[in-house]
Design goal:
alpha/beta; 7 strands; seven-stranded parallel β-sheet; about 250 residues; Rossmann fold; globular; binds NADP nicotinamide-adenine-dinucleotide phosphate
Length: about 250
């Protein structure tokens, strides 16, 4: 197992990519604290699945946009596990609209969750990783942070921001043996897609772009997350790795 004895914190573990990453990290031996916002029953179910694998698990409610919520989650994870080695900044949202119709609230909320939310958790974990001279931070961005997407100026800006954040953080923490990388999904079949009124149209567009002609699944991301969280990836930092079936080449 790649992650025996390691302790991980995954934001947004009640669904989609975060849930798949939590299960994969646990299957590689890690104890996992996963967070949720609204889907408590799902988060508890995933925590129980992880416990059934023989690992420790914890499900904690929070709004990642809140600095104090992030601090409380990190404290709870350290209290439960004794230490932390892996942070997966994953929880995110979209609230689409063309720029000439977008409200201030739409802009602010997406940036607060998708960009500041990642800072909030990193800020409380970075001193621990620096002190112990070990840590892995994996930030989930998006191919739309690399290329921009029509109707998503707020989301694209937040995800592009995460790429700059990842690179700067990799430079700050590298001397302490802490790696920081970003994973950039293309279209992945999660609630974000399933709940969209434009689901079929979005899938058709992604298929037309995709080299592999396949819609990604949460597990496709989870395998990369667990590799980057492991010491097999110890010489990789400051990278942005696409998992998109060749949707953006
Ligand atoms: N799906 C895609 O096609 C795709 C493509 C590119 C990038 N991404 C990125 O991948 C990440 C995961 O996306 P996903 O598709 O797996 O999403 P998802 O299925 O909608 O799940 C989102 C997760 O984030 C949590 N969350 C959302 N807002 C939160 C907040 N303010 N505070 C705390 N938790 C919050 C949700 O908690 P609750 O459910 O409990 O409320 C849920 O666990 C996101 O950063 C997203 O931008 C996704």
């Amino acid at each position: 197992m790649l992650l025996e004895g390691k302790n991980a914190l995954v934001t947004g573990g009640s669904q989609g990519i975060g849930a798949a990453a939590s299960l994969e990290l646990a299957s590689e031996g890690a104890n996992v604290c996963l967070t949720y916002r609204k889907h408590e029953a799902e988060a508890i179910k995933y925590a129980e699945e992880i416990q059934a694998m023989g690992r420790k698990a914890l499900a904690v409610q929070c709004d990642i946009a809140s600095f104090s919520d992030a601090e409380n989650v990190v404290k709870a994870a350290v209290e439960a596990f004794g230490s932390l080695h892996i942070l997966v900044n994953n929880a995110g949202m979209n609230w689409d609209g063309v720029s000439w119709k977008m409200t201030e609230e739409q802009w602010d909320r997406v940036l607060e969750v998708n960009l500041k939310g990642y800072f909030n958790f990193t800020r409380h974990v970075a001193p621990l990783f620096k002190e112990q001279k070990y840590g892995k931070i994996i930030n989930v961005t998006s191919i739309n942070g690399l290329r921009g997407k029509f109707g998503q100026t707020n989301y694209s800006a937040s995800k592009a921001g995460i790429i700059g954040f990842t690179k700067a953080l990799a430079k700050e923490l590298g001397a302490f043996d802490v790696t920081v990388n970003a994973v950039a999904p293309g279209l992945i079949e999660t609630a974000m897609l399933k709940e969209s009124e434009a689901r079929d149209k979005i899938i058709d567009m992604a298929m037309a772009e995709s080299a592999l002609k396949r819609v990604g699944q949460p597990e496709d991301l989870a395998y990369l997350v667990s590799f980057l969280a492991s010491d097999k990836a110890k010489h990789i930092t400051g990278e942005v790795i696409k998992v998109d079936g060749g949707q953006y080449i």
